[in-house]
Each structure stands twice: as structure tokens, then as C-alpha cells.
Amino acid sequence: MRKNSPDATIPYSFFASLRNGCDMLEEIARIAAEAGLRHAALSVIGAVSRASFGFYDQEAKKYTHMTRQGGYEVINCTGNITVKDGSPFVHAHALFGEADGSAFGGHLLSPTTVFAAELQITELAGPPPERVFDEKTGLYLWQAQPA
Ligand code: ZN
To answer: Which of 4, 99, 116 minimizes the C-alpha distance to 49?
Structure first.
């Protein structure tokens, strides 16, 4: 379970700075693993020097992978950490901003190179949902939770 919390009965939430030059997704996963998190919500704001993101083609059941080189704001990145194949798994979506105020984004992928960014992670109570392959969508979705 969590390693850094002083009291397991209160919600555990913390800020972390993502290092310049690191891969955003890998850095989130590294920080979460160091904290021992398997069930958490996360958000990131900041800036990147390269952005990679996916669009899920629902017919083909495949991600289209896009990478854009350049300086972009991370207007918002929201995601979660749950369990897939027995290990913590980060799922996040990001909205990136251009200099003219326009925006683009999607399912966060690597390589996304951090310029400077601030992460907030909040651990959630109870056992994490587990991701299992769903034939209908072709995605690894959370199993239905008991009522
Ligand atoms: Zn996604």
C-alpha cells in the first residue's frame, strides 16, 4: 500500500515537480510507484517541448499515434492509476495549448517531453479496479464493481 503517508486513515495527496527532459508518462508512473500507489487520481499542468497523444479509432479498435515537436502548454492532464496485469497502470488524457491559444490533445502517450510540470496525485480509498480486456471495445476496461 502507500509508503509515504503519515496516517493511512486520511486521504493521501501530494504535489511533485516533473523534471525537465523526462518523459511525462514514465515520470508519473515512476513517482506513483515510488509512493506505492495503485489506486489514485492525478492531474498535471505545465509545459512540454514535445507532445505525443493517441486517438482511438473505434471501428479499427486501434490508437492513431501522433507526435508534435515544439513548445506547448499542458492546459490540463487528468488521469488515474489502477491495476492492469497485477501492476499499477497510468491512464491519462492531455490537452496541449499552442502559442495562438488553440489546443489539441488526446490519450497521453510517450514520448512527451516535459519542459516544466506540476503533478498532483491523490490516493483513493479501497481496492483499485482491475483492467480487463473488453472484446466489444478492444480496450482494457475496469471490471464492473460489486454493488
Ligand atoms: Zn485513454
So the answer is: 116
From ligand 1's centre to the CA of 82, what distance in Å? 13
The pLDDT score that the predictor gives to residue 38 is 95
3-state secondary structure of 67: strand
- Domain ranges for the chain, please list them: 13-142
Alpha carbons 72 and 51: distance in angstroms, whole number: 8
Average model confidence (pLDDT) for the chain?
93
**Could you list which residues have their CB under 5 Å from ion ligand 1?**
107
**Maximum alpha-carbon separation in the chain:** 47
CATH 3.40.980.10 is held by the domain 13-142: no
Q: Using CA atoms, how far apart are residues 75 and 15, in angstroms rounded to an integer?
A: 17
